[in-house]
Amino acid sequence: QVQLVESGGGLVQPGGSLRLSCAASGTISSIYGMGWYRQAPGKERELVAGIIRGGSDFVTNYADFVKGRFTISRDNARNTIYLQMNSLKTEDTAVYYCKFVGLGGDSWGQGTQVTVSS
Fold it and tell me: What is the pLDDT of residue 89?
């Protein structure tokens, strides 16, 4: 079982930046990918960005609504992924969740609140 702990959420003004972190621990077997999702009030959870194994390397993918503003990255030594969020908009307000996909199944973090407001 993989445990995920997110951090870095908070309140920021429009145009500001935040960096989210997601640290994985536990029995980490083959990693297929990790990613960030978000869920705003009254809406379904949606993919924001992911890092997916593609052969011997990992490839990144982004939702259209964050391309050019958000960057996902990973630190293999720390089993941690990050989401750098720039040029934040009010519509980015949501609970952001980290997801791990591995040989043993999927795991979700508890979520971290991001609020973009003036």
Answer: 97
Q: How many whole angstroms separate alpha carbon 106 and alpha carbon 13?
A: 33
Using CA atoms in the order 16, 94, 68, 99, what is the torsion angle rounded to 10 degrees? 130
How large is the C-alpha radius of gyration of the chain? Answer: 14
Reference 66, options 82, 44, 89, 35; nearest CA is 89
Q: What are the tokens at 26?
A: 């536990």
| Residues paired with 80 in a beta bridge | 23, 75
Residue that has been written with the tokens 């989401």 in this structure: 83
- How many C-beta atoms lie closer than 10 Å to residue 62's C-beta? 17
In this structure, are residues 6 and 21 in contact, taking their beta carbons and an 8 Å threshold?
yes
62: CB partners within 8 A, 6+ apart: 48, 49, 70, 72
Q: What is the pLDDT of residues 61-91, one digit of tens each?
A: 999 999 999 999 999 888 899 999 999 999 9
Alpha carbon distance 90, 85 (integer Å): 13
